[in-house]
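Please annotate this fold before class:
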Amino acid sequence: MHSIRERIPRLFGLLLLMLLAWAHVRMALQLQRAYGNQEVNHPEVTYSRNPGMLSWHARQRYLFGGDLTGATALYRQALDIAPVFIPAWLGLAELYNDTGKRKTADGVMNLVDRYTQNIKRYRWDKILVAYQMQRTDILQRDLTYLIAEGEGQDKNRALRMAFTLWPDPKELERILGDGNLPVLFRYALRTENTDMAIAFWNDYPKVEAALSSKEILSFIQLLMREKRLDLAATIWRQSFNSKALFYNGMFNKKPLQTAFGWQIRTAKGSSWRIEKANLERPHPSLSIRFLHEENLSFSHAAQIVPLAGGHRYLLKGQWQSKELTTDQRPFLEIIGYQCQAQPVPGEMIASSQPWQEFTLPFTVPESCQAIMVRVRRTPSHRIDNLLGGEFRLADLEIVPSKISIAPLVEATR
């Protein structure tokens, strides 16, 4: 049997645990009321030391109960506890503005404006009230601040509001300043607002220097989707390919997989890789291996090339093959891009051949601003139609042609 002296500490510990459990339950119930949808009958008593909940209940009373007096009292009680509690001041400004006390509301907003200098917290809430009050001075200043210094959702909200308030790009740039120009461009690009992105891009030195290659490629791709090939080609040449007509024909860079670079996909029944230079080949090459599993319709390696319409060109390069099967083997083909055009196919490569040069003449129609060069293979109609073997391509380039236009077939689709 335990003595009474031994039991007393245990009973005391049990009592202490019960008191702590009761305190936690009480706190949980209070928090549930605070953040749930249930109204508290006397928030001024229940939350007498909580300015956040007093302000929340003040807003509920005003918006849903029309209780102007009660809401004002709760806001003032919150400010008695925390004199610089911004949500309470903003609530009073909104309340005074809605009830026609514009001079008082402006005075409160001026006070909030001083309290929130150079801080991010509550800045978006302040912008919303300033928008309701048509305080363009605060709107311009705070949107500029959030766009430059904000992060995440607040920054995106500020950008969305700025683009809505000032749809003219020149006005938007004037209000938000040159320093925000790259941010504005990125938002226009992300939301595919092509006209705004183009307008911001016109200040090229200010924007381009702040952008990554990936962002510029995304812009070029957007312009291509919108069929604005002239500008897309101009930016492409400025930023990526100022010297050659054909990009990365030596395969000494990774495929860009976008814009006017190589776009190479893996087709079922095949694989591809970029092979490094070796003793046999002084330059890297594109190697496509066919696995003898599919009767492929292949067009999975291609490049869109911006070219002037009405001119003649030569596609030149070198290729090699090893043990290609079936009567239908790979060939190079030129088609129009975003224009009516007749395909210009080259000859099929032999089943097996060493590295050899090839040329493919073509003419770009007047209606075209770009063509597509692609590796092509059409399905075979024979019984033994599964494509196997290996195909390699290297040293591709496009050069202007001096051959007479008469015998050439136009590259139209």
